[in-house]
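Comment thread on ticket #2218

A.B. wrote:
> Attaching the input chain for the structure job we discussed in standup.
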Amino acid sequence: MHMISPAVAPGLIPGPEISILLTIALFALIIVFHEFGHFVIAKLAGMRVHEFSLGFGGPALLSFKWRGTQYSLRPVPIGGYVRIAGMEPDEDVPDGFDKKPILSRLAVIASGSGMNFLLAVLLFWFIGLAFGKVVGQSSQLARVLPDTPAAVAGLAPGDKLVYAQPVPVIAPGAEVAPTVEPRKTMDVEELRSVISDRPDMPVRIVVLRDKRYLAFRITPRPEKEEAFEPEPNGKGKVVLRTVGRIGVVFANMTAPMGFWESMQSGFVTVYDMTRALIVVLAQTVAGRLPLAVGGPVQIADIMADAARVGWQQFLFWSALISLNVGVINLLPVPALDGSRLVFIIVEGIRRRPIDRRKEAMVHLIGFALLILLLVLVTLKDIVHLIDKYVG
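C.D. wrote:
> Ran it. Output below, let me know if you need it in another format.
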């Protein structure tokens, strides 16, 4: 049986301040899951772990030692870290990372991304349990976002949009038309198309409310949106285009999902999205797709938008970001886990250790370049946000 349900339950949609806190908590959760993966497998492999910390900075707010490992709670609550013995160039301990077999070391390094994949599975599984599977979308409104054209005009949750058409400038407000049938009933995609094609131009929208048709004049607010624009040579580029938005969330048509179906759906979704992400990365490297890189500022903006829409959207993007972190960390880029995997595999092929000082220097240079890239991407994201919200 299909049900029409809003994106979230009424009253559970976070405000701006809570959205920021949720985004910070998300970053922390993704990092902690990643580091916890390294920690657990290192322990299972018999490696000495100096410290597992929640948060950064010092001094520690809370600290205790158990079975040779220091567990710490530190004041900067964004993520955490794990210090495994034998990973520093000058450290030589019998049960250190560098003394363990190749397969054990590979497992420890890969387990960070593995936990990010697991977190994505758990989030998709929870989405299935809590909200069911989406089988379509209704033209009924689940939510009207505050301070948007739709809210100002008087649209309300529960209204069913049935028709939209471009109109000349007329008096604002709602016109009650209980006996005037709309010319036709549009589906969600047709309604979206009319609205998005009319930024800063009035649209007449007819809704069904309490068995009466109401006609509203609404001027969609212009917003910048990234879009892929193909080119004749088979490549393409990402461009910013201006679209119209009125600030509504359409209700999903959902079907209930049980425990096992939700779990299976979580694994399938992660597999499909991982494969799609790898394809995109491969096409980007091949030059068929433009390079599109977003940093913490863009991610925070995406998550804030998702939180304003509702919990389901926020959880979906949380899973997607965790998945991206898992895949990107496996790339063979110095300072990322992928490059450490490469060094271990090369060591196994050569059958002799690689100079740890040289390896550390490669990771240090890679880390410096990643920090530089992060700064440049952050500046780009800030300019993009200024253009989106101000320009």
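A.B. wrote:
> Thanks. Noting for the ticket: The CA atoms of residues 205 and 321 lie 36 Å apart.
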